[in-house]
Write a structure and sequence with these properties.
By secondary structure, the protein is α/β, with parallel strands linked by helices. It has a single domain, classed as HUPs (Rossmann fold, 3-Layer(aba) Sandwich). The protein has helices at 23-40, 58-69, 87-101, 117-123, 128-146, 158-171, 174-178, 202-211, 228-242, 246-269, 290-303, 306-312, and strands at 12-14, 19-21, 49-53, 73-80, 105-109, 151-153, 183-184, 192-194, 275-276, 283-284. The strands form three sheets. A six-stranded mixed β-sheet has the order 5-4-3-6-8-7, sandwiched between helices. Helix 1 (23-40) packs across helix 8 (202-211), helix 2 crosses helix 8 and helix 6 packs across helix 10. The longest helix has 24 residues, at 246-269. The chain starts with 11 loop residues before the first strand and ends in a 14-residue tail after the last helix.
Length: 326
């Protein structure tokens, strides 16, 4: 197979585009897809500062590298989840990447904020993935505003967006469908949120990371087993295999025809008035935001945990708390 652009031997085959590229031409294709997404949705204006949420995976690190190469004023934010055996490895990959490319990085340690994910999992009665996602989004937005960034970029790729859209459509969740898209405008208390990789598949972002020698954190989160999001991705991967181009057609169709209808419906239904959280200043409609309420719950239940109290008193328990393990 030959490269569609230069006719050299191809290294990356893209059935969804009915084409293939050599290494250099694939880099041009990847860059062009990001540039097209930014231009089409007016994601970044000249002179704006961009904060990129970095997990350590192929998507976020690849996005950071591409935006920097395109000349944008970018910096990274990593939220250390405090998960033993996982978070340290992810943080090391992010730090190594930023050091290698001379990019600024800020790290938020959830353990210091009273919200280490093992504590949230143990003391809060809600799905840990849901709580973790809410906490990360809170800190992404909070740091963006506190540090003067106009734009918050995340590494969601086409597979991520299609799986999320599919799940929201199965539930006909009008609230989520109304704000799903590659660019959400800035509102009072919220930075503009963008997803410049939305036109690129998981395979394409993986090829980009590999061909650019990006050292990524690839181990799955130890708490993510059984998540429906993963099953939805598998369903769509099978559909894409048999019908190349289905993902982008589904997502583009929603942006053109579905999203405007849901956005209108959401505006008509209205919502609660937002005001700064009494504890952290983030926008909320409930006085104290949901993340601060999580932190309060974790603190109260940790203090009342009999296993922790026994440990402080030097009493041996049959099953040590996850919080006491080394």
């Amino acid at each position: 197979m030959k490269c569609r652009r230069c006719k050299a031997p191809a290294e990356v085959a893209l059935p969804s585009h009915n084409t293939a590229f050599c290494r250099d031409c694939f880099a041009l294709f990847f860059s062009g897809q990001v540039e097209r997404a930014i231009r089409k949705h007016e994601m970044i204006a000249p002179g704006e500062r961009v904060l990129v949420a970095l997990s350590g995976g192929k998507d976020s690190l690849g996005l950071m590298l591409e935006l920097a190469r395109q000349g944008y004023d970018v910096a990274g934010l990593h939220v250390d989840l405090g998960i033993p055996g996982s978070s340290d490895a992810a943080r090391a990959k992010v730090q190594g990447f930023c050091d290698k490319h001379g990019l600024h990085l800020r790290v938020v340690e959830l353990a210091k904020e009273g919200l280490a994910i093992p504590d949230v999992k143990k003391y809060v009665k809600r799905p840990v993935c849901s709580a973790c996602g809410k906490i990360k989004r809170h800190w992404f937005n909070r740091v963006a505003l506190e540090d003067g960034y106009q734009v918050l970029a995340t590494g969601h790729n086409l597979d991520d967006e299609v799986a999320r859209l599919f799940a929201n459509t199965l539930r006909w969740d009008a609230g989520y469908l109304s704000d799903q898209g590659p660019c959400l405008p800035a509102e009072s208390g919220f930075a503009r949120k963008i997803k410049p990789l939305y036109r690129l598949s998981e395979f394409e972002t993986a090829c980009h990371a590999f061909l650019n020698g990006i050292d990524i954190h690839s181990a799955p989160c130890p708490y993510s087993g059984g998540a429906s999001f993963t099953h939805h991705k598998h369903l769509w991967a099978d559909l894409e295999y048999h019908s190349p181009g289905s993902k982008i057609a589904f997502y583009d169709g929603f942006l053109k025809r579905g999203r405007p209808a849901f956005a209108t419906q959401e505006r008509e239904s209205g919502g609660g008035e937002l005001a700064p959280c009494e504890r952290c200043g983030s926008p909320t409609s409930t006085g104290v935001c949901s993340v601060c309420r999580l932190a309060i719950t974790v603190a109260e239940r940790r203090a009342a945990d009999p296993e922790r109290q026994a440990g402080r008193a030097g009493i041996q328990t049959d099953q040590p708390s996850i919080l006491e393990k080394d």
